[in-house]
Amino acid sequence: MSKLEQTFSTTVNVEAPKAEGEMESTANLLSQAGPFARIEGDIEAPSGGGTNSSFGDTQSNSNQSIWKQSSHPVALGFHLFFRSAALLVYLFGSLFISNFPFIFITCVLLLSFDFWTVKNVTGRLLVGLRWWNDIQEDGKNVWMFESRDPSRPVNPTDSRIFWISLYVTFVLWAICGFLSLIRFDTKWLLIVAVALTLNFANVLGYTQCDKDAKRKWATGFASQNVGWVGKLFSSGVGRVFS
């Protein structure tokens, strides 16, 4: 029995270090796995960071509709509705209605609504510009322009859609007029004449108003800089001779 106990104790003493060695190797493996956990954390952390979040905001803004990007979606809707409706009635009205006077009156009313809305409402709200004609006492017709404060920028979506629709609509009516002239269709040419007259007035008025606004802003900016330079120069000269 003594030899068996010695053999058993030897076996226990021999196997015990193996268990400790396995525990040490397992601990070493776990300690070595630590840096990978930190790397995974560093990779996931920037997902809420500034660069990716700003990119996500830009992508989300680009995916938004023009109505959500617009500062005045109601005004933008009326701006596009009247001019689009007038063109659609002119192009496709005869397919559904054979009464030309009704189509003529409808187109003229839509064109009149569009002219008044663009001149007095949407131009002021979407691009911060307004124009009108002032008749002087001597009967002279004078163009008057009104522009926003340059410190208050306009919404880029509103501005882009306003100017594109303003010029594109005029070009489309010019094409319609050219086609009517080729066909010698005088009755449809009357509608085009009204459309070109009203649209050209807004195109000319807002183009001149935009040029006048830029000229005023440039003049005001230059006068402010000259004023600051003059104040600095006068204060410097005053210090030298004081």
Shape designation: globular
| Strands, count | 2
Cα-atom radius of gyration: 38 Å
- List low-pLDDT spans: 1-58, 225-230
Strand count, sense and barrel status of the largest sheet are: 2 strands, antiparallel
From the N-terminal CA to the C-terminal CA, the straight-line distance is: 117 Å
Spell out the helices and strands N to C.
HHHHHHEEHH
How confident is the prediction overall: mean pLDDT?
Answer: 76
Q: Percent helix among the residues?
A: over 70%
Q: State the helix count.
A: 8
Main sheet: strand order: 1-2
Q: Label the structural class.
A: mainly alpha
Describe it for me?
This protein is mainly alpha-helical. It is built from 8 helices and 2 strands. The protein has helices at residues 2-32, 34-44, 50-63, 66-69, 73-96, 100-127, 156-183, 186-241, and strands at 129-135, 141-147. A two-stranded antiparallel ribbon has the order 1-2. Strand 1 and strand 2 (141-147) form a beta hairpin. Helix 5 (73-96) runs parallel beside helix 7 and helix 6 (100-127) packs parallel to helix 8. The chain starts with a helix and ends with a helix. Mean pLDDT is 76; it is low at 1-58 and 225-230.
